[in-house]
Design goal:
GO terms for molecular function: methyltransferase activity. By secondary structure, this protein is an alpha/beta fold. The protein contains twelve helices and 18 strands. It has two domains: 174 residues, Vaccinia Virus protein VP39 (Rossmann fold); 181 residues, Rossmann fold (3-Layer(aba) Sandwich), CATH 3.40.50. The strands form four sheets. The chain has a seven-stranded mixed sheet, sandwiched between helices. Strands 12-11-10-13-16-18-17 form a seven-stranded mixed sheet. Strands 8-9 form a two-stranded antiparallel ribbon. Helix 4 links the parallel strand 2 and strand 3.
Length: 369
């Protein structure tokens, strides 16, 4: 099959006519970096934040070999693999965690700019610490998602920063002369007696988002019959750590598709002394869990896929939670009241009742029929 950015798919992520797998920022990054990539040694090109494979496979199609790549969402990683298989490019790249091995000796790095400045700070520090001295970092994105603060973050770790002309509402920042690199470390913040740890890019960072706070306030106090709970879409692990702390006999399984969230949740569990009872996994939905295996699941579902808001994400999560719950098991969910998820919960899980509601959020419990 002939390679084309237009032929890339987002699967297994949400697919819809208005959601694309490659955009103008991907194309501009590939064009701006073309001459630099042509001179790179095999194994010295790194791609970070590739949505669904446009940058990795575009570079591979142009002749790059031994590409190292990191994508925070597991769905993006799986989409890259699926797209590579279709175009016969699976052998040209390796997916790696966001650590020193990813960027060691890199000569060119292509980066889709993250929305989070802390995530950008972690990446810039890592590249500056371990890439080749002559490395050139091409960091691009849609102008509407970029800010001058991103320039300032890159200047913390690079001596020279150039800015390209905008094209199709996209722009690329080009950073050279790395200095004062450092490996990412989780940030920490204490809320009462709970320590929250977060690497850059984890949703809500070291704060506790108001939806999670509302859910925690209304989870049942008596869970003596629950030997293992699931914190589904766990983020930084606030619910998982809280459940483990409040119920010393309970084990908790926490999962998220975000690599940054998983690393953060592990750090949060450890910081609160419950790391031995909290298992954290990177997973797409609950695919690693067998059916009818759980009696209690807590969920604060996301409503966005990347930067796109899409209402199809939560119902998929409700359906997978229903698959994993035993008959009579409970799904405790917090959601923005304007999204009106209750009919979907009734249909996909079972009888659903409202536990609490405030000006913005609703907490419900659904019993698996």
């Amino acid at each position: 099959m002939t390679f084309s950015l237009d032929a890339l798919r987002r699967w297994p992520d949400i697919e819809a006519p208005d959601l694309v797998a490659a955009d103008a920022a991907d194309r501009l990054l590939l064009d701006e970096s073309a001459s630099a990539r042509a001179a790179v040694d095999d194994g010295c090109l790194v791609v970070i934040g590739d949505g669904y494979g446009a940058l990795t496979l575009g570079a591979a199609e142009s002749g790059a070999h031994g590409i190292r790549t990191h994508q925070d969402p597991l769905t993006g990683e799986r989409a890259l693999s699926a797209n590579a298989e279709r175009f016969g490019l699976s052998r040209e790249f390796t997916s790696l965690p966001l650590d020193a091995a990813l960027v060691q000796g890199a000569q060119v790095v292509l980066l889709r700019l993250p929305r989070s400045l802390d995530a950008l700070r972690d990446i810039a520090g890592l590249v500056a610490a371990h890439a080749a001295p002559e490395v050139v970092l091409y960091a691009g994105g849609r102008v509407k998602h970029m800010s001058l603060a991103m320039n300032d973050v890159l200047r913390e770790r690079f001596g020279r920063l150039d800015v390209t002309h905008a094209r199709q509402k996209s722009r690329v920042l080009v950073a050279r002369e790395p200095h004062d690199g450092r490996d990412p470390e989780p940030r920490r913040e204490t809320h009462g007696d709970l320590v929250v740890c977060a690497f850059g890019g984890a949703f809500a960072g070291t704060s506790i988002d108001i939806g999670t706070r509302f859910l925690l306030e209304h989870l049942p106090s008596d869970l003596s019959a629950v030997d293992e709970a699931i914190d589904f879409a766990c983020g930084t692990g606030v619910v998982a750590a809280s459940l483990a702390r409040q119920h010393p006999g309970m084990r908790v399984y926490a999962c998220d598709e975000s690599a940054a969230a998983v690393a953060s949740a592990r750090a949060t569990a450890s910081a609160n002394g419950v790391g031995d009872r909290v298992t954290v996994a990177r997973d797409d939905m609950l695919s690693d869990r067998p059916g009818s295996s759980a009696s209690f699941i807590a969920l604060n579902p996301p409503f966005h896929s990347g930067s796109a808001v899409h209402e199809g994400i939560a119902p998929r999560m409700f359906a997978d939670a229903a698959r994993v719950l035993r008959s009579g098991g409970e799904l405790w969910t917090v959601w923005n009241s304007g999204l009106r998820y209750r009919p979907a919960l009734e249909r996909l899980v079972g009888p659903t009742r409202q536990v609490a509601r405030n000006a913005k959020f609703t907490v419900t419990v659904s019993t698996k029929r």
